[in-house]
Amino acid sequence: MGVLAEAQMRHFRSNEVTQLRAWEQSLALLRAALVAQEDAGAWWLLLEFPMLRLGKRADAIMLMPRAILVLEFKIGATHFTSADREQVDDYALDLRDFHAGCRRHPIVPVLVVPNAPDPHSTTRNLALECVWNVIDANAATLPGMLNELATAIPVPATALDPRAWCEAPYRPVPTIVEAACMLYARHGVAEIKAARADAENLSVTTEAIVAAVGEARRDGLRVILFVTGIPFHG
Fold first, then answer.
1. 10 is in which domain, residue-wise?
2. Do the strands 107-112 and 68-73 form a parallel or antiparallel pair, or are they unpaired?
3. DSSP string, 217-231
């Protein structure tokens, strides 16, 4: 937790108490679930894995010899929701599309809601190279679900090498909007206040943008506007 908190403060300038409590409970659940696995000593666990294209972090990536598990914990929730399933499914799809280490092994998205009722989802999906449907798990069913996955997934031609997976290229390509949001996500309002342009130039630039948007609406066009450097009117 200390390492996670330090990284959180370094990269996101925050260290909320709720986040610390969530890590504490998630780690306790993972510890209890992994103790029940006979061969868990060969598994790797990556915490707070950055999903660069989505601008988020997966709670945990679990690397088994037969599969890649993407786990999302919803501490404090009491039910499985479609929005939460979609979130962890997006993580799994992102890895499939952009992580070179995910080409030969199944990717299993798992939604963990510790206090939810026993889920109805099942692990019955034996495809070797795909993203599985999201599996729901609570605190009681998580150990058994991991054990079933470890034994039910067919043995691949080549076992997953965790170290090679970590070193494999991960090259997500964000959209223009996603890239802009990621770029300025860590900036405060001070950077905006320090803009090196006077009011006249900013006004002229704003008017030009508004005019371009108006023309696009009027003529049914699609336009992309780039404002770069210090706005200057000459």
1. 2-171
2. parallel
3. HHHT--------SS-
Q: Higher-confidence residue: 147 or 2?
A: 147
Domain count, the chain: 1
Contact 110, 137 (CB under 8 A): yes
Percent of the chain with pLDDT over 90: 45
Bridge pairing between strands 135-137 and 68-73:
unpaired
- Per the CB < 8 A criterion, the answer to whether 53 and 179 are in contact is no
Cβ atoms 60, 71 nearer than 8 A:
yes
Q: What is the pTM of this model?
A: 0.68
Residue range 177-229, pLDDT digits in tens: 766 776 666 565 555 555 555 667 778 888 999 999 999 999 999 999 888 76
Report the distance separating Cα 57 and Cα 72, nearest Å: 10
Residue 117 lies in a domain: yes
Burial class (CB in 10 A: 0-12, 13-18, 19+), 154: exposed
Q: Are strands 68-73 and 56-63 parallel, antiparallel or unpaired?
A: antiparallel
Q: Which two tokens stand for residue 211?
A: 């005019």
Coil, strand or helix at 71: strand
What angle is formed at CA 5 by the lines to CA 3 and CA 9, rounded to 5 degrees?
Answer: 120
Q: Looking up tokens 């058994």, which residue turns up?
A: 144
Can you tell me whether residue 46 is helix, strand or coil? Answer: strand
